Amino acid sequence: MVVVTIVSVIAIIVSVVAITAIALGSINSQRGVCLPFALMRNISSTCKIKNMKPSRFNLFFPYSGSMIAYNSIENDFIFLTNELHSLYSEIATANIAQLEEVHPEFWKALVDKNFIVPENVDEIEKVKALVHSIDCDPSHYHLIINPTLNCNFKCWYCYETHVRGSKMSNEIIERVQKHIKQKLDSGEIKCLTISWFGGEPLLYYKQVVVAILEFVNDYIANTDVCFNSNFTSNGFLINDTMVEDFDRLKITGFQITLDGHREQHNKIRFTGKNKGSYDVLVSNIKKCLKAKVYVTCRINISKDTFQDIEKIIKDFSDLLLEDRKYIQFSFNQVWQEKTNLHSQILNLIELFKQNDFSTQYNMYTDTVRNSCYADKKNQATINYNGDVFKCTARDFNTENREGYLKDDGTIEWNEKYYARMSAKFKNSPCLECSILPICNGSCSQKALESKDMKYCIRGADESKKLEVVRAKLEHVLS
């Protein structure tokens, strides 16, 4: 949870659920805010020297007439008056412990929120412990399954090699079922998620998806294991019969992509010449919402898709408020687009919010606390042929596999898997970065592909790092 604190004459701690006021007393020259640094040096002889230090993860930047302090490991913001920021800056360059004497309330607020930490605290180890607690959670197992690598669309930007005729065989389905049974029988799994990917997973809905989901639902029927299933799908094949299955099979969500409004979308996502998909997708999304199935409507953003994109709002304007709570519009600039469209995306997001739609923007993604599924130890991606991968954002070539699903349902991992699971915290620019606890160089895939290289996903540009933090603040305040 992100916490915002305003420190001035009155300190206001603002969380998602509460507002608390804490009196700091008057701020004047006697409290040290306006004292010149020369006078502070005279005061320093009376200060108790404490073994404290400013956190290495503090950032400061101006915003709406205030100075913002942000600590990336605590994920906390503090609104400071300019005087308090000046006080902090001057003392921090000498001996931060002087702040306790000069302004004890300010000192206490910074210590309580870990903007000032004990000298012996290794903050890098704290980040490692945070990452380990998230990526090595034994209680949740996430299995991704590709029933096929074939697809009924031919999107120009798709990175996958579509394999015609590819389909998970009955033999591999049985191995998958054995694998799931073994995981559940271990007693460690409290929650199981099965995600369907591809290719287009709905091409073999009855033959593969239903066969596996019926098995799982029967197996966990008398257990306390929570279970849900979701799809990354183009959404074109959703029909009324499937929708009737969703509740029974515990299908709870879809991610379906729109590439702009109707005209632009139909140039990219089509089933054949002059056969666009926009209207079918909008209709199928609404079917899911009526069935209380959550839909993340991913909107791919490029310079081309901005034309008429706001008209998407009108196409969903007939949704009742009850149905709207099941849809979220997620805005993602496609990686091929090199123009910075951040400000235009923010304006678009505001327009959707004004029309009572929930939004998500990948600029806000915390890749530590919300790390990629492929970073997690308790996750696997099983391809239709039994090859096992972690990442789904690369081609599923057998030479790239990280393991194989054996006849008995166990996964035999290879050296690529072990290299992935030890890939983090080896990039020196990341270890020196103030936003390490919300970035960590992106994901394990990026770390693998940048082995023995010094890299920064933001080009070592401090202004771009601050842009991420500022966007996070604006998201919290919106």
Q: Short summary of the structure?
A:
This protein is an alpha/beta fold.
Descriptive overview:
The protein has 478 residues and is α/β, with parallel strands linked by helices. 34% of the residues lie in helices and 21% in strands. It folds into three domains: 3-121, no CATH class; 131-417, TIM Barrel, CATH 3.20.20; 424-477, no CATH class. It has helices at residues 37-43, 82-92, 98-102, 104-112, 123-135, 170-185, 205-219, 240-249, 262-268, 278-290, 311-315, 321-324, 342-354, 415-421, 428-431, 444-449, 462-477; strands at residues 3-7, 10-14, 19-23, 52-54, 58-63, 66-71, 76-80, 116-118, 140-145, 191-196, 226-232, 251-258, 270-272, 275-276, 294-301, 327-333, 358-361, 379-382, 387-389, 403-405, 411-413. The strands form four sheets. An eleven-stranded mixed sheet has the order 17-16-15-12-11-10-9-18-19-20-21. A six-stranded mixed sheet has the order 3-2-1-7-6-5. A two-stranded antiparallel sheet has the order 4-8. The longest helix has 16 residues, at 170-185. It is globular. The two termini are 15 Å apart. Mean pLDDT is 88; it is low at 7-49.
* Count of DSSP-assigned helices: 17
Main β-sheet, spatial strand arrangement: 17-16-15-12-11-10-9-18-19-20-21
Beta-strand percentage?
A: 15-25%
Largest sheet composition:
11 strands, mixed
Identify the CATH class of the largest domain. Alpha Beta
Total beta-strand segments: 21
**Structural class by helix and strand composition:** alpha/beta
Tell me the name of the CATH homologous superfamily of the largest domain.
Aldolase class I
- Low-pLDDT regions: 7-49
Q: Per CATH, which architecture of the largest domain?
A: Alpha-Beta Barrel
Q: End-to-end span in angstroms?
A: 15 Å
